[in-house]
C-alpha cells in the first residue's frame, strides 16, 4: 500500500506544490498510523509555502496542521489507542496533507466515532483557536464589545459563532461581498476596503472595544489598538499582511516589540496567541477544549461554515482559494 503526500518542493506560489506516493511504513515507537479522512487548509500553510512564516521549514515538506482519521496501526507504547479509533490530529504546522500520518501521543485526541469528519476538522485548529482566544486569553463576559478582523475566514467565523453563543456585541471587518456572512451571526460588518474601521467604531461604539482579535499585523495592529476601551484587551494571532509585503523578520520584530511591552501606552494588555505554543504549555487545555467544542458540534450548538471540500490531490487549488480570498469559512481536503 502507498501513502499519498502533498509536498512543497521549493518556496513559491501554488505551482511549487507536488504529490508523491511512497510505501506505507509501520509506526515507530510512540506513534500510531492514522488513515486520514479530512485535513484542514490554513493561511499559515501558504505563508510556509512562500517561506514567509518565521522559521519556515526547509523544502521539501508537507504542509498542514489538522486532520481527522482512523487509527489503522498502533506502535509500541501506544496501547491507549486501538485499531479503529477515530482521532483528531494536530501537528505544529507541517504534516497534515497526506493520506496517512504518524502522530505521537501529544498530537492526538480520541474523538467520538459519530463526529462528522468535515465539520470536525474545522474545530481542531479554527474553533480551538477562537475559543482559547475568547475564553482562555481575553476572558470575555456577556455583553462585552469585540472587533474581529478577517471575520469571514475560518477563525473569523468561529469567533463570530462562539461570540454569539457568549452573547457578545460583535463588529467584524470583511470585504463587502462577504457582509451577509458577518451579519448572519448578529455582528455589524465593516468594509475594510472602503471604510476606516477606527472611524466606524468611534461612531457606533464610542466607548471602545473590550477585545480586538487581529490576524493581520503591521499597520493594522497599530490602528486596532486605537479602538480599545479603557479595559480593552488586544489579541494578535497572525500576520497575514506579510503575504502582500514584508519579511519574516518584520513579523518577528513586531511580535518581539509587543511581547516586551505587554501593554499599550494606555496600559491595555497585549497578548500574542499561537495555538501550537499554548498547546505545548497547556496540553490539557488543548485536549479539554477540543472535546468541549466537539460536544457542542454533536449537540448542534455550533455549525462550522465549510467553504469548499476538495480532494487531497487538488491541494494547490485549495490554497489558491484562501490566497485569493475566494473562500468563506474553512477549506477542507478530503481523502477518499
From TrEMBL:
Matching CDD domains: MDR8 (cd08273)
Annotated Pfam families: ADH_N, ADH_zinc_N_2
SUPFAM superfamilies (alphabetical): GroES-like, NAD(P)-binding Rossmann-fold domains
Domain of life from the UniProt record: Bacteria
GO molecular function term, any single one: oxidoreductase activity
Family matches, as InterPro entries: ADH-like_N, ER, GroES-like_sf, NAD(P)-bd_dom_sf, Zn-ADH-like_protein
Enoyl reductase (ER) domain ranges (all copies): 12-333
Protein name according to UniProt: Zinc-binding dehydrogenase
Species of provenance: Shimazuella alba
Amino acid at each position: 500500500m502507498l501513502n499519498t503526500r502533498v509536498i512543497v518542493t521549493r518556496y513559491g506560489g501554488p505551482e511549487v506544490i507536488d504529490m508523491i506516493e511512497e510505501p506505507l511504513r509501520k509506526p515507530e515507537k510512540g506513534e500510531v498510523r492514522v488513515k486520514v479522512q479530512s485535513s484542514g487548509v490554513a493561511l499559515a500553510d501558504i505563508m510556509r509555502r512562500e517561506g514567509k512564516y518565521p522559521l519556515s521549514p526547509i523544502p521539501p515538506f508537507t504542509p498542514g496542521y489538522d486532520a481527522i482519521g482512523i487509527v489503522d496501526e498502533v506502535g509500541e507504547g501506544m496501547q491507549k489507542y486501538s485499531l479503529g479509533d477515530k482521532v483528531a490530529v494536530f501537528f505544529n504546522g507541517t504534516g497534515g496533507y497526506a493520506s496517512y500520518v504518524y502522530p505521537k501521543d501529544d498530537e492526538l485526541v480520541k474523538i467520538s466515532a459519530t463526529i462528522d469528519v468535515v465539520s470536525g476538522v474545522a474545530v481542531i485548529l479554527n474553533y480551538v483557536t477562537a475559543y482559547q482566544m475568547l475564553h482562555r486569553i481575553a476572558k470575555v463576559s456577556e455583553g462585552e464589545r469585540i472587533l474581529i478582523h478577517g471575520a469571514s475566514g475560518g477563525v473569523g467565523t468561529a469567533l463570530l459563532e462562539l461570540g454569539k453563543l457568549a452573547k457578545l456585541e460583535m463588529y467584524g471587518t470583511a470585504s463587502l461581498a462577504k457582509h451577509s456572512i458577518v451579519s448572519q451571526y448578529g455582528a455589524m460588518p465593516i468594509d475594510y476596503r472602503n471604510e476606516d474601521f477606527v472611524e466606524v467604531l468611534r461612531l457606533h461604539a464610542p466607548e471602545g472595544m473590550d477585545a480586538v482579535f487581529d490576524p493581520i499585523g503591521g499597520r493594522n495592529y497599530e490602528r486596532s489598538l486605537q479602538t480599545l476601551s479603557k479595559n480593552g484587551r488586544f489579541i494578535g494571532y497572525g500576520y497575514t499582511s506579510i503575504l502582500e509585503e514584508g519579511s519574516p523578520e518584520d513579523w518577528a520584530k513586531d511580535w518581539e516589540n509587543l511581547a516586551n511591552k505587554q501593554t499599550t501606552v494606555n496600559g491595555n494588555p497585549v497578548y500574542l496567541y499561537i495555538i501550537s505554543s499554548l498547546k505545548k504549555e497547556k496540553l490539557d487545555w488543548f485536549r479539554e477544549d477540543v472535546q468541549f467544542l466537539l460536544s457542542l458540534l454533536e449537540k448542534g450548538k455550533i455549525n462550522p461554515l465549510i467553504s469548499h471540500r476538495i480532494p487531497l490531490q487538488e491541494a494547490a487549488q485549495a490554497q489558491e482559494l484562501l490566497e485569493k480570498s475566494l473562500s468563506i469559512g474553512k477549506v477542507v481536503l478530503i481523502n477518499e
